[in-house]
Write the structure tokens for this entry.
Amino acid sequence: MGEDAVQQRFGPSDVGVTEESDWTSLWSSTADMPAAGYRELARAPGVHIFNDQDDVLYANASLICLHARNDGQHLLHFPAQASLRDALSSVPKATGVEEWGMQMKQGETRLIHWQTL
């Protein structure tokens, strides 16, 4: 991610980039960058993004915990086809999906067990 791309996304006075042959450093003059900014910084080097909706999310190799920021449909994106089940009740939710959505109310939290196929 070059400095021009970063400045297009976040503004010229907010962030800077130093790129070397084997590393890249990015700095920000503000700690309150929006979640979308951090998400794009992670996406640039290839980090998988499970959710694009500013929800609170924790993910590891087998669990996703999603806390809804607002009412509505909340989408999860998986790096490969996956089977899903509710981690608390073990009720199957989906099989062979790379994207899956669920209706949630603001403040609701769901814990999903996921496994790639």
About this structure: The chain has two domains: 3-43, 56-116. The radius of gyration is 17 Å. Residues 3-43 form one domain.
